[in-house]
């Protein structure tokens, strides 16, 4: 069994900067495993890196809701115990995934939302950041474009933005997942997407594997995409075949587009999508794998800068 970290930086038509971002994130997560950290530490580290990177739709760089505000969703899940934590519609924090982990570790609940999530963040001494520090020029421009009558924010989203996520297996065979997003462009205030919903925006179970998705949240939720893929793995499918089956079902049943990263407890992994692109990277055994377009699969040594 080879420990692995697999990350995605969103599905759609992806700008080049995100290629680099996912490679950095996979390396960062893998370094945590090499340093003796567990799979939960690794996925949180990888996703936190991408939340801090303004080219991704999570943390800094999040899309704006219809009112022009940032409301973020995040989830983590630990395959050893099925413990999970999530936040939805949270504002004014840099790293929602860290807050989701604290929900898992410090409360008896699975998800805290909006003002309640902010109160909890304060009680955990998570620094509040001004909303402006999370908003990029690009996000504001897309928000303005999508205020126009006849705009199609979901289509525009799949063209431009990248939710982030990671799955990992550590040396003990423990799997974990983390997913984080600003949601869908120009969403209604208070909209909760797939990401904070267990089974949709992520799932991890040491007996089966772990999944982190990206794509149209409403479609992902209708088919409980992450748990659906793990169901197929329980029935004997590989991580890759199960991912394709889940995505194909979402496409045929609810016309949903998206992508996933998936692992099994033996360290076999997949990065699959039915959009034009999905930025992904996987670090395992000294090799960094990465790709963006369908069928693309590059490898390099983890230590090589490019
Ligand atoms: N799944 C995210 C959401 O609907 C968006 C994305 O993956 O880009 O909130």
CATH superfamily caption: (Glycosyl)asparaginase
Name the shape in a single word.
globular
Radius of gyration: 17 Å
The SS-based structural class is: alpha+beta
Q: How would a textbook summarize the main sheet?
A: 9 strands, mixed
CATH topology: Glutamine Phosphoribosylpyrophosphate, subunit 1, domain 1
- Which sequence of strands runs across the widest sheet? 4-3-2-6-5-1-11-12-13
Helical run tally: 9
Helix content: 25-40%
Distance between the termini: 27 Å
CATH top-level class: Alpha Beta
Strand content: 25-35%
The total domain count is: 1
Element order, helices and strands?
EHHEEHEHHHEEEEHHHEEEEE
Small-molecule binders here are: aspartic acid
Describe the structure.
With 306 residues, the chain is α+β, with helices and mostly antiparallel strands. It has a single domain, classed as Glutamine Phosphoribosylpyrophosphate, subunit 1, domain 1 (4-Layer Sandwich). The protein has nine helices and 13 strands. The strands form two sheets. It has a nine-stranded mixed β-sheet. The chain has a four-stranded antiparallel β-sheet with strand order 7-8-9-10. A hairpin with a 5-residue loop joins strand 5 and strand 6. Bound molecules: aspartic acid.
């Amino acid at each position: 069994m080879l420990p692995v970290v697999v990350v995605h930086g969103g599905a759609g038509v992806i700008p080049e900067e995100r290629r680099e971002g996912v490679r950095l994130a996979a390396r960062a997560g893998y370094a945590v495993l090499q340093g003796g950290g567990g799979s939960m530490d690794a996925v949180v580290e990888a996703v936190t890196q991408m939340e801090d990177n303004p080219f991704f739709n999570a943390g800094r760089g999040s899309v704006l809701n219809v009112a022009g505000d940032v409301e973020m969703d995040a989830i983590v899940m630990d395959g050893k115990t099925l413990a999970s934590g999530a936040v939805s519609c949270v504002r004014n924090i840099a790293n929602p995934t860290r807050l989701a982990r604290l929900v898992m570790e410090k409360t008896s609940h699975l998800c805290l939302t909006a003002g309640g999530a902010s109160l909890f963040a304060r009680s955990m001494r998570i620094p509040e950041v001004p909303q402006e520090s999370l908003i990029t020029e690009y996000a504001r421009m897309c928000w303005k474009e999508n205020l126009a009558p006849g705009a199609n924010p979901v289509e525009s989203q799949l063209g431009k933005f990248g939710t982030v996520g990671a799955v990992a297996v550590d040396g003990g065979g423990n799997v974990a997942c983390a997913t984080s997003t600003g949601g869908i462009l120009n969403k209604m205030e208070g909209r909760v997407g797939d990401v904070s919903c267990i089974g949709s925006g992520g799932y991890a179970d040491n007996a089966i594997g772990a999944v982190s998705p990206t794509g149209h949240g409403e479609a992902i939720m209708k088919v409980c995409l992450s748990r659906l893929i793990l169901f197929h793995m329980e029935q004997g499918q590989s991580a890759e075949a199960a991912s394709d089956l889940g995505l194909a079902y979402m496409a045929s049943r609810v016309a949903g587009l998206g992508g996933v990263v998936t692992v099994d407890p033996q360290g076999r992994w997949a990065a699959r999508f039915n959009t034009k692109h999905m930025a992904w990277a996987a670090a395992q055994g000294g090799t960094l794998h990465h790709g963006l377009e369908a069928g693309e699969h590059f490898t390099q040594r983890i230590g090589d800068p490019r």
